[in-house]
Each structure stands twice: as C-alpha cells, then as structure tokens.
What we know:
By secondary structure, the protein is mostly helical. It contains 15 helices and no strands. Helix 5 crosses helix 13.
Amino acid sequence: MRALATLSRFVGNTFALWVLVFALLAFLQPQWFISLKVAIVPLLGLVMFGMGLTLKLDDFAEVFRHPWRVGLGVVAHFVIMPGVAWVLCQLFHLPPEIAVGVILVGCCPSGTSSNVMTWLAKGDLALSVAIAAVTTLLAPLLTPTLIWLLASAWMPVSFWDMFWSILQLVMLPIVLGVVAQRLLGKAVAVAVEVLPLVSVVSIVMIVCAVVAASQAKIAESGLLIMAVVMLHNGFGYLLGYFTGRLCGLPFAQRKSLALEVGMQNSGLGAALAAAHISPIAAVPSALFSVWHNISGALLSTYFRRMKE
C-alpha cells in the first residue's frame, strides 16, 4: 500500500506530463482510444466522488473567517473566465461548436489542480480550497445559466439539461463521497492516499477519449483552438491577479486568486460538451486540461520565486 501511495504522489506531481503524452498518443492513434467515449461521464463522476472523500468542514472555515475574500474569488472566477471566453469567440470568429466549447469551459468551476499549484506557489492554500469548493457547489446553478446566456447566440443550449447533468456529474458524486467519508471514517484515509492516481488516470482517459473522437477536426483547426485556449487561460491568471491587487489583497492571496480564476474544471467541460453538444465542442476543454496544468506549474514556480 505504501508503494501504491508513493506511485500516486509521483503521478499526481507529474500530472501535466501524462496528460500531454497521452493526448499526443490519442491524436496519433485515435483508434486505440475511441472506445473510451462511453466512459467520459462515469470517469468524471469518479473524480468528483474522490473530491467528496477529501472535503472537510475545515475547507469552508475560510468562508466564515474571510467571507469577502472568498466571495471576491468566486465572483472573479464566474465573471472573468466566461467574459474572456465570450470576447475571444467574437474576436476569432470561431465556428459555432468550437465557440460553445470555449464558452463552456469558461463557465466551469475552478479546477481541482489549482489547489496543488497554489501550494507550490506559496499562496494562501485555505483561500484556494475555499474558492474551489464554493465554485464547485455553485456550479449546478451558475454554469448552465452562464452557458445559456453567453452561448445561445451560436447554438441552442438547454439550461435544464445542463443543470441536471451537473447535478449528476458533480453534486451527487460529491455528496456520496462526503457520506462515505462520514460512514467509513479511517478506512477512507487509505483510499485518499491513492486518489491522485485515480484522478490523473480518469482525467487522462477523458482527454484521450475527446482527442480520439475529434482527431480530424483537431488536425484541421487545432492550432486556432490551442491559441484561444492559451489566451483564455493567460488572461484568467492575469485578470485574477490584478483583481486581487486592485482590491488590496496581500501577495499570497493574489497568487491564490490568479490560479483559482485561471484554472478550470476542464474534465466537467469535456463531459458536458460530449454529452450535450458534440465531440468537437469538447476539444477546447481537452486542450485546456493539457495546457492549464503546464502553465499552472510554470506560473506557480515563478510565483514561488517572486518577491512582493
């Protein structure tokens, strides 16, 4: 078990590498991974169940200690990322399915890896965890609302279909994870040690499925989508950081805000796009998953060395 826990930590720390390697492999050999399409939704549910296993009341203590900081992070996340996505879609005149995919990933809650990046950056980890938890819990309402408001100009989007999907993909697994944690107690601690391995394998499989299903479209317009994804992520970091600065947050909190705003739950975006729109609409989420783990690691290293 100790060896498995060590492997889990290693895989978790090298997350970006595995996503990149297997995304390239899925692009070059799509027939190897195309059958994974049917597993996208269960895999995301498994990741969210793991999040539920690790959630504690202490994670929400920051909400009560510094509610305005957490509120600022949540508002910044759900304003900046959807807004930047909409602007980029207008500027680049993206095709409808791709535009909806970009907006969809912009409307998702914070990514789970943002907490790791905040810790590496020597940011305020308690604030980061609180923002990620609150954005995730608000996602069933805010994510479909924002997608419906911003993406309907390109394609018809059903609020209720998205709402029920997010309840099933996010809230139900998280609640089951919290319940399991309460009922099983110490037994869960053993499972938590291997959760990074389970999460990385699940997200890598989701990315592979999306890339394999859309290989031809990626070959045709992948560079354009990648450019939009990189700009989206970069502006998220930048505007998140300067939002904190304008509001007078200390340096550690500014780092947390930058990473929480710029990093998305792209696995959720890919699952929603594949289920409700099309495989090509899931490509921005898949590429975001590859890129934000690379950029997040680079930014956290820079933040770690940066003087206030």
